[in-house]
Design brief:
Layout (H helix, E strand, L loop, with lengths): L1 E5 L2 E3 L7 E2 L4 E2 L6 E3 L1 H17 L2 E7 L5 H10 L3 E5 L9 H12 L6 E5 L10 H9 L3 E11 L2 E8 L2 E8 L2 E5 L11 H7 L4 E4 L1 H4 L36 H11 L4
Parallel strand pairs: 1-6, 1-8, 6-7, 7-13, 8-12, 9-12
Antiparallel strand pairs: 2-5, 3-4, 9-10, 10-11
Helix pairs in contact: 2-5, 3-4
The protein binds flavin-adenine dinucleotide.
The site of flavin-adenine dinucleotide (FAD) has 30 residues, from helix 1, strand 6, helix 3, strand 8 and helix 4.
């Protein structure tokens, strides 16, 4: 079973993230890049499926050169190889363009299943999985809290407000996973060393058959017209408990219509 897992490098949420005033896009060089948190669960799920059904796990990332660090991290968790879609023409691509570009890159890889996170921590559009499945013409199973493969079918428990639905599709298919679907493994020192030698194929847009006028900031359907720093968080209301703390807290909640 050939599984491709999508891995996005995002700015470390612990560091300050900057938008560049020239073009209102995220200044990815200004902060350390890390693997998008939900993608660690996607990698782990792909590895668990490989351990159960055999086959190979390929990491696919679209991102600048610095994204190589996150690719190596994914390989050190146990993925077999990687494809890095890297090209200046892709800079500033929006979610639809990114989905299109990744669908073309997937055209260069053999796969039975694509696994990705249900959202990124930087843009959080949460639409990439759906858009990718549309471009590939494949079924999508989103927000999976459990994934099972049985012969040529994949079945997931799709998280809902009231519990979950069981959704099934024929392979090949696209599956997005939610947090806590599994416990991502920590790379062992041995795997970290092995990851340095694992193949990473670099693809430019020409290699993937991506038309230059379908990607990049200049051709994006969405545009960030302006941005402003988030207002500093206001200090909260301090309730001094002189035996009536509970009452005061209840009054505060009622006043704010929380209760
Ligand atoms: C602050 C900010 C705001 C943005 N706002 C918008 C917006 O409103 N509309 C818009 O169209 N674009 C927006 N973008 C651009 C958007 O982030 C990128 O196009 C992005 O690559 C795809 O969208 P996403 O991260 O929201 O995907 P999501 O749908 O949130 O990501 C889901 C999963 O898709 C996979 N994935 C996403 N990107 C990649 C990648 N480059 N390589 C490999 N796998 C990937 C990951 O597995 C991820 O877990 C914004 C970017 C930033 C930084």
């Amino acid at each position: 079973m050939n599984i491709v897992v999508l891995v996005k490098q995002v700015p470390d949420t612990a560091t300050e993230r900057k938008l560049s005033p020239d073009d209102n896009t995220l200044d990815r060089a200004a902060s350390d890049g890390v693997i998008n948190e939900l993608d660690e669960y996607a990698i782990e799920e792909a590895l668990l499926l490989k351990e159960k059904h055999g086959g190979e796990v390929t990491v696919l990332t679209m991102g600048p050169d610095q994204a190589t660090d996150s690719i190596r991290k994914a390989l050190s968790m146990g993925a077999d190889k990687a494809v890095h879609l890297v090209d200046d023409a892709l800079e500033g691509s929006d979610a639809l363009q990114t989905a299109y570009a990744l669908s073309k890159a997937l055209g260069t890889v053999e796969f039975d299943l694509v696994v990705l996170g249900s959202e990124s921590t930087d843009a959080r559009t949460g639409v990439l999985g759906a858009a990718l499945a549309e471009y590939l013409g494949l079924p999508q199973l989103t927000l999976a809290g459990k994934v099972d493969v049985d012969g040529s079918a994949v079945r997931v428990q799709r998280a809902t407000d009231y519990g979950y639905d069981v959704v099934e599709a024929q392979l090949p298919a696209v599956v997005s996973v939610i947090e806590k679907i599994n416990e991502p493994r920590y790379p062992s020192f041995k795997l970290i060393m092995q990851a340095k030698k694992k193949p990473v194929e670099k693809l430019g847009i020409a290699d993937a058959g991506i038309e230059a006028d379908r990607v990049g900031l200049a051709n994006a359907a969405t545009e960030t017209v302006d941005f402003a720093p988030a207002p500093p968080r206001a200090a909260g209301t301090v309730v001094k408990d002189e035996g009536d703390g509970g009452v005061k807290a209840a009054e505060f909640l009622a006043e704010k219509k929380f209760v």
